[in-house]
Amino acid sequence: MSRTLVLVRHGQSEWNLKNLFTGWKDPDLTEKGVEEAKDAGRSLKEAGLIFDLAFTSELSRAQRTLALMLDELGAPSLPTIRNIALNERDYGDLSGLNKDDARKKWGEEQVHVWRRSYDVPPPGGESLKDTGARVWPYYIHDIQPKVLGGGTVLVVAHGNSLRALVMALDGLSGEEIVGQEIATGVPILYRLNADSTVAEKVVMEG
Ligand SMILES: O=C(O)[C@@H](CO)OP(=O)(O)O
Predict the structure, then answer these.
(1) pLDDT tens-digit readout, 92-139
(2) pLDDT tens for residues 38-54?
(3) Interatomic CA distance for residues 51 and 1, integer angstroms
(4) Considering the domain 4-203 in this protein, what is its CATH number?
(5) Predicted confidence band at 199 (pLDDT cuts at 50, 70, 90)?
(6) Residue 119: how many CA atoms within 13 Å on its side-chain side?
(7) What is the SS3 assignment for 16?
(8) C-alpha gyration radius of the chain
(9) Ligand 1 atom nearest to CA at 16
């Protein structure tokens, strides 16, 4: 019984590089992002992981990261399910704005609250709690059964959609999640017990 779940944030995007709030906007990966995706695929291959199924969002940066990883894993036609529930948090009116310009306009602290707090939404967008309210049910109904059925499942998504998932898997509070960052292209491996609790977590850094 593998019961293995691997979470990967997409590689660096053009808008990560330009320091823009991205949310549901759809920029491509940078060259560095392409390399990060390939490295993630290679390290999972070296670790001997053989996936049964992959999930990703409706956004190109995650889909392209997944495709690059699957090429490295030698599994380019792995069954893949795309769902909007795994999309990045909707950044609302901040989408497309430069993060430093936003800090100048609204102040460092307010921007940090919008970016990392649990339940304060950015103007016109989703809080992490709102994001979790779509990510977690999707995990429970669609992803978790595949893992508990004994599968090895890959999820390639986004910084905040994965923060919402990690918060629930790790049992973190609204205060604890503030300090959690998900690095681009660094696989986070969970092995689950039969009762769905986490048996082991490994962050596969370089
Ligand atoms: O802009 C975004 O959509 C996210 C992820 O890149 O940014 P932040 O890290 O500020 O939540």
Answers:
(1) 999 999 999 999 999 999 999 999 999 999 999 999 999 999 999 999
(2) 999 999 999 999 999 99
(3) 13
(4) 3.40.50.1240
(5) very high
(6) 3
(7) helix
(8) 16
(9) 6
88 annotated active-site: yes
ipTM score of complex: 0.97
Q: Is 112 designated active site?
A: no
- Ligand 1 atom with the shortest distance to the CA of 91: 3
Nearest alpha carbon, ligand 1 atom 8: 115
Q: Which atom of ligand 1 is nearest to the CA of 99?
A: 10
pTM for the structure as a whole: 0.98
CA distance 138 to 55: 11
Domain ranges of the chain: 4-203
- Copy the structure tokens of residue 62: 């995650």
Q: Is ligand 1 within 6 A of the CB of residue 90?
A: no
From 89, 100, 118, 166, the mutation candidate for ligand 1 (largest count of ligand atoms within 8 A of CB) is 89
Under 8 Å between Cβ of 49 and 198: no
Residue 115 annotated as binding? yes
